[in-house]
Design the sequence.
């Protein structure tokens, strides 16, 4: 059974200075198979995360002593435990910074408890699928698109030979787009492929992951080389034009 959904209890650490919210989330999640531990500031949260084993961490952005970004940066030096950032600040810049540091998902504190539970389960599924992934098949060669190389075997992506630091969700998005190079992938298709579940609530999360992915591959959203937004449809990965082709187009 999936963690948080069946017989196996899921150990969750919540690091947030809002004690009332922590208790509300604990009371909601525990009947759904979660054992919730709580810490109310950054330093104690980091110490707990480093000294004990948890399946997933809920992490606030703004906290006394050490904010969530600092905590996550230090945690990622030695741990790949799934982290879902839960914060009252919803600006896109904050979400992108969190994802670039290594958060697996990002939610505002106004989220419903049902959506929070769904997001936790999706993050846990993705983490489990990466952990138990089968060895690469000989029939899965690297996908080359201009100077971008996406290799499904070792789950690596490079631009101009430089290895990209992608989260599991970002790699799955990039791989899905690369396999469909030149064709539009709807948000619903990407949600289904990345989360293994078609949840409309994940649609904005896909957009945030795409924004983070664009930054890592050096794409400009207003004039993208690789990931193009198709209005009212979704996203498409295209082959970048060579300098010679661009010059001909401009003349």
Sequence:
């Amino acid at each position: 059974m999936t963690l948080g959904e069946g017989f196996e209890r899921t150990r969750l650490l919540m690091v947030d200075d809002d004690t009332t919210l922590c208790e509300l989330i604990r009371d909601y999640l525990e009947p759904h198979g979660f054992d919730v531990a709580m810490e109310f500031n950054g330093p104690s949260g980091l110490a707990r995360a480093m000294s004990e084993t948890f399946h997933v961490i809920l992490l606030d952005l703004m906290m006394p002593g050490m904010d969530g970004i600092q905590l996550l940066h230090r945690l990622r030096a030695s741990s790949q435990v799934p982290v879902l950032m839960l914060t009252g600040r919803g600006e896109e810049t904050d979400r992108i910074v969190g994802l670039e540091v290594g958060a697996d998902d990002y939610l505002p504190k106004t989220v419903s408890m049902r959506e929070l539970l769904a997001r936790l389960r999706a993050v846990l599924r993705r983490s489990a699928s990466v952990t138990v992934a089968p060895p690469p098949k000989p029939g899965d060669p690297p996908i080359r698109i201009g100077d971008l190389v996406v290799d499904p075997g070792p789950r690596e992506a490079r631009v101009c030979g430089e290895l990209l630091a992608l989260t599991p969700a970002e790699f799955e998005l990039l791989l899905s787009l690369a396999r469909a190079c030149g064709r539009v992938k709807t948000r619903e298709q990407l949600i289904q492929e990345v989360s293994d579940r078609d949840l409309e609530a994940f649609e904005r999360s896909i957009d945030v992951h795409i924004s983070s992915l664009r930054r890592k591959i050096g794409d400009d959203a207003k004039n993208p080389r690789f990931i193009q937004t198709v209005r009212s449809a979704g996203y498409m990965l295209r082959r970048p034009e060579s300098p010679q082709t661009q010059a001909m187009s401009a003349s």
Remarks:
- Confidence is low (pLDDT under 50) at residues 1-7, 196-201, 242-251.
